[in-house]
Amino acid sequence: MNVSRLRPRLPSPLVPVEDERFGRHGVRLLLKRDDLIHPDLPGNKWRKLALNLEAAAGRPVLTFGGAYSHHLSATAAAGRLLGFPTIGVVRGDELAGRPLNPSLARCAADGMRLVFVDRATYRAKDEPEVLARLLREAPPEAYVVPEGGSNALAVRGCVELGRELMGAADVVAVACGTGGTLAGLAAGLGPGQRALGVPVLKGGFLGAAVTALQAAALGGRAGDWSLDERFHGGGYARVSPALDAFAQDFEERHGLAVERLYVAKMLHGLLTLTEEGAFPPGTRLAAVITGSGDGSNVRTVTAEGDRRGARSGGQSAASSR
Ligand SMILES: Cc1ncc(COP(=O)(O)O)c(C=O)c1O
C-alpha cells in the first residue's frame, strides 16, 4: 500500500520560538511541529503507522485503545482514506451500551468496527489465548497493531524523526506513553545529541519498555536517551488545573493548540528542568509536538482528586492511548 498517497508534510517544520522563561537561562527553544504532518494522522501517529500500513498491504487492521485513543482515531481515519477495513478493540465493556463519545463516534463514522471488552480481557490482550479469542472478531488475514501502535516497525518509522533533527538541536524532548516514539527518535539522532523522554504514566516501567522496543526494532540499545519520570502529574490522563493553566498560557504565547495529556506535561517538564539549570547556556532544546490539541480529551483533576470532565464529551474515563 502506498501510504505516501496521503501526502504527509515531511520533514515536519522545526520552528524557533521566543520564550523569555527559557531565554533568560540561555536556552533556545525549538518546536518540532510533528502535529502538522497530517490532519488525521498527526505527529507520532503517522510516524508509527506508516510502515505498519505498508506491511498490512490493504488487509484489515485490528488494533487496541482506550475510549479516547488518538491511535484508534488515526487508524480508523487511515482506513477510510486508504480503503482498508479497521477493527478497534476498546477497553471497557461498560461503554458498549452507552452513546459513543466524540472520539469513538468519529472512529465509527470512519468505518471502524468497535469491539468493547472488559478491563481484565483488555489487560491480558497480549497473551496468546486472549489474542486468539479477540482475533475471532476479525477476518483471518487481519494485521494486528499493538496498543499505542508501538512495535518494531513503529520504532523504525520514528527513527526518521531523529534523522530530521540531526545537527539541529542538542537535546530533543518527547512525551512518552509506550515509549515507541522515544525509542526511534533516539536512534535517529546524530553524535552529541541526546533524547529526553517525559513519561506521562506513573510506574517506572518505561526504561525497560524502550530498551525492549529498541532491541526488537534495531537489535540493541541505540542513541543517547534518558527519562525524567517526575512530570506525569499524578498519572495518565490526570490534568491538574495548574497544568491546564500552563498549557493555556503556552497557547497564548505561541499560537499553538497544546495537547494536554502528553504535550503539555512534556513542555511543563522542560520549563521546570530549564529553571533548575539542567541545560547549560547555549543549549538548543527541541520539543517534539507529537499531537494536536483539539481539547477533546481533556478533563481536569484537582489535587483532591475531584474530577471535572472539562472538555471530555461527557464520559469520565478519559484515555487517549
Ligand atoms: C500526542 C501523543 N504524544 C506522545 C505519545 C506517546 O507516544 P509513545 O506511545 O510512542 O511513547 C502519544 C501516544 O501515542 C500521543 O498520543
Can you walk through the features of this model?
Helices cover 36% and strands 17% of the residues. The protein has eleven helices and twelve strands. The strands form three sheets. It has a six-stranded mixed sheet with strand order 1-2-10-7-8-9, sandwiched between helices. The chain starts with 13 loop residues before the first strand and ends in a 10-residue tail after the last strand. Bound molecules: pyridoxal-5'-phosphate (PLP). The site of pyridoxal-5'-phosphate (PLP) has 20 residues, from helix 3, strand 7, helix 8 and helix 11. Residues 43-44, 70-71, 148, 150, 175-181, 259, 262-263, 290-291, 320-321 line the site of pyridoxal-5'-phosphate.
Short structural description:
The chain is an alpha/beta fold and 321 residues long. It is built from eleven helices and twelve strands. The chain folds into two domains: 198 residues, Rossmann fold (3-Layer(aba) Sandwich), CATH 3.40.50; 106 residues, Rossmann fold, CATH 3.40.50.
Which descriptors apply to this entry?
single chain; 321 residues; alpha/beta; Rossmann fold; 2 domains; 6-stranded mixed beta sheet; 4-stranded parallel beta sheet; 17% strand; globular; disordered C terminus; binds pyridoxal-5'-phosphate
Strand and helix layout:
Blueprint (H helix, E strand, L loop, with lengths): L13 E4 L2 H4 L4 E5 L11 H13 L4 E5 L4 H13 L3 E6 L10 H8 L3 E5 L1 H5 L4 H8 L7 E2 L7 H13 L6 E6 L3 H9 L5 E6 L6 H13 L6 E3 L13 H14 L5 H16 L8 E5 L9 E4 L5 E5 L10
Parallel strand pairs: 2-10, 3-4, 3-6, 4-5, 7-8, 7-10, 8-9
Antiparallel strand pairs: 1-2, 11-12
Helix pairs in contact: 2-7, 3-4, 7-8, 7-9, 8-9, 10-11
Bound molecules: pyridoxal-5'-phosphate.
